[in-house]
Amino acid sequence: MTDVALEPGDRLDDLIINDLKIIQRDDQFRFSLDAILLAHFATVRPNAVAVDLGTGTGVIALLLSTRGAAQVIGVEISPVMAGLAARSVKVNQLAGRISIQNADLRNLRGQLPAGVFDLVVSNPPYRPVGGGFLNPNDKVAMARHEITATLAEVVAAARYLVKYRGRFAMVHLPERIPEILEVLRQAGIEPKRLRMVHSAIHKKPNMVLVEGVRGARAGLEVLPPLIVYDDKGNYCSEILAWYQGEQPL
Amino acid sequence: MTDVALEPGDRLDDLIINDLKIIQRDDQFRFSLDAILLAHFATVRPNAVAVDLGTGTGVIALLLSTRGAAQVIGVEISPVMAGLAARSVKVNQLAGRISIQNADLRNLRGQLPAGVFDLVVSNPPYRPVGGGFLNPNDKVAMARHEITATLAEVVAAARYLVKYRGRFAMVHLPERIPEILEVLRQAGIEPKRLRMVHSAIHKKPNMVLVEGVRGARAGLEVLPPLIVYDDKGNYCSEILAWYQGEQPL
Question: What is the pLDDT of residue A2?
């Protein structure tokens, strides 16, 4: 690990996957299992060039890199989070393979090239901005609600970036599946893989993983469900394998 | 049971559910688990008036009736199957609650009223007519391939029949989920419930059950998966409960 000056409030966490460290802050959005699941679900071809839209802490960018992506660009609208993610990249000595761009995914034209990326991923805000009160200065709300980007805007950004036959993978809420699939198809990104994520086998899924291929023909592969916890409340063997058998935090 | 003259080739099977009998023929399409699952998945409100599109043997119409539907109309394009289904209705003394119409679901205008039905269901042909050779006189192929009705035509028929806030439930292949959800939404039938059907927990689903509500707003409930067989290869308890604990044929 190189010397990286942590800033006041920074906390250096151990990801327990591939010896990765991650800097987080208690007053900012911290990554959750959703990001870990997406990073392991996406199809990462050897030497892929990838973009993570709304990278936050940068955790997905880090994991895609250790999964074999040659280059990963993490796009993040918050300058505070972008700085945090950039410091995490340095901590892990991955500055040669990951770059963090403080940019608005709604406005990538001129900032990133069109149609050249093998893979685009996103763990976007899940919930539409409804009638309820939301403080636009609330950093956690920005990551959870569609304040800075709607589903359609995330997919439009992915469509702009991904090459023909390239892939776009996303984690989202099952209740929005019809809208997700429709928006993907309208953007010419055909849904090809889908996996439901359940906390237990007899429960409804609380997340869905979806991957589409730009320009592919129709035909969706629905994978076996991912059941996060076993009967004893421990992570299932599939997830534990990522953590080399250790129970993560 | 009333006296019903079975025709040569008719075979009287026991459904083992609610003492229902069903007439089948070895030279025609016979119902499978798909139909049983759909009949139990659909939301049947007390005294519902329902239509089963492509009723075949009539098994779904019979089950909807015993689940509480006041009136069920089974639409069937094949005169041979329509006759068979009508005899099954008589065998079960349900002629007052179920009627079978020998009609083409692509041409229901003038045959059935528009927008009055509480529930429409369909176990349609699953597979598009591809490049392969298909004999249009093959009765089993007609039930499996979209020779007599495509997905879009089935949904259009459902849209014609179902009342505002009424429901349409279908069983289909998981690989066609994106197309199914899109066609439903385009018809104004919003997907509201979805359930994957797996033969075993670690396998991909081989069927999907979907229910939409005409005029509803977006928001899909994805139910826990239905795992058809337990570890010993027996039907799961949920399915066995329909059969009062007996292993069906």
Answer: 53
